[in-house]
Design a protein that fits this description.
Mean pLDDT: 95
Strand order of the largest sheet: 5-4-3-6-7-8-9
Order of helices and strands: HHEEHEHEHEEHEEE
Number of strands: 9
CATH superfamily: Vaccinia Virus protein VP39
Low-confidence stretches: none
Helix content: 25-40%
CATH topology: Rossmann fold
Radius of gyration: 16 Å
Distance between the termini: 36 Å
Strand content: 25-35%
Bound molecules: S-adenosyl-L-homocysteine
């Protein structure tokens, strides 16, 4: 490993503290994941900068501050089963896997799914499974989940997903227009759902029935 990498990761953790990430478990999870492995080789020197990077097929790896915020909002416990929709590079799934019992991550593009699976297995994550699947309706066969994270933007809260939460379960999803969204958290209480908004985000569109129709 390039000797500068651990230093850059440490600088990133200090930056995340400065912008208000408070959960020490989340900071430790991010400190443990080598983000440079999840970005294309030509971008490795930018792996610890706080912006999204292209990962091919028109998709992006989310910026570290957004991964941190989403993970903090999800309040992941070590007993939790987590569903992520939009595996992309696999980075967010790796961060979640540091905290959860098990992470199912769904990706509609086979080439990205294959690359994510290879990275996660090379890094020794044995509590993550990457499935090639349209996740816009969640994964009913494996539901319910304590945590559902949508790593792509949806026009409104996908109701199929809220139904797949456990009691007390948390859904975190960027909601809004194609190019600008708000991070929304939905917490299930019985048949009721408590919604709150947590600042701006920019994600590629969720494709599918409860996402944006047609091609991204
Ligand atoms: N979490 C990723 C970033 C995701 S980018 C990371 O850490 O790198 C969003 C991803 O969602 C893209 O790879 C896109 O192909 C995928 N996606 C979009 N709509 C989807 C759907 N309906 N089901 C599964 N994956 C979807």
């Amino acid at each position: 490993m390039n000797a500068a990498v651990p230093v850059r990761r440490k600088v990133l953790i200090e930056y995340l503290r400065e912008i208000g990430i408070r959960d020490e478990r989340v900071l430790a999870a991010i400190a443990a994941v080598p983000r440079e492995i999840f970005v294309p080789a030509s971008f490795r020197h930018q792996a610890y900068e706080d912006y999204p990077l292209e990962i091919g097929e028109g998709q992006t790896i989310s910026q570290p501050s957004v991964v941190a915020r989403i993970t903090e909002l999800a309040a992941v416990d070590s007993r939790d089963r987590v569903l992520e929709i939009g595996a992309g590079s696999g980075y967010q799934a790796a961060v979640l896997a540091q905290l959860a019992r098990f992470v199912f991550t769904l990706e509609r593009l086979p080439r990205l799914a294959e690359a994510a699976r290879a990275r996660l297995s090379e890094l020794g994550y044995d509590n993550v499974s990457v499935q090639v699947m349209d996740g816009s309706l969640g994964w009913r066969a494996r539901a319910p989940f304590e945590v559902i994270i949508v790593s792509a933007a949806a026009p409104s809260i996908p109701r199929a997903l809220t139904e797949q939460l456990t009691e007390g379960g948390r859904l975190v999803v960027p909601i809004g227009e194609r190019r600008r969204q708000q991070l929304v958290r939905v917490v299930r209480h019985g048949d009721g759902f408590e919604e709150s908004s947590h600042g701006p985000a920019t994600f590629v569109p969720l494709v599918g029935r409860d996402g944006f129709q047609g091609q991204p």
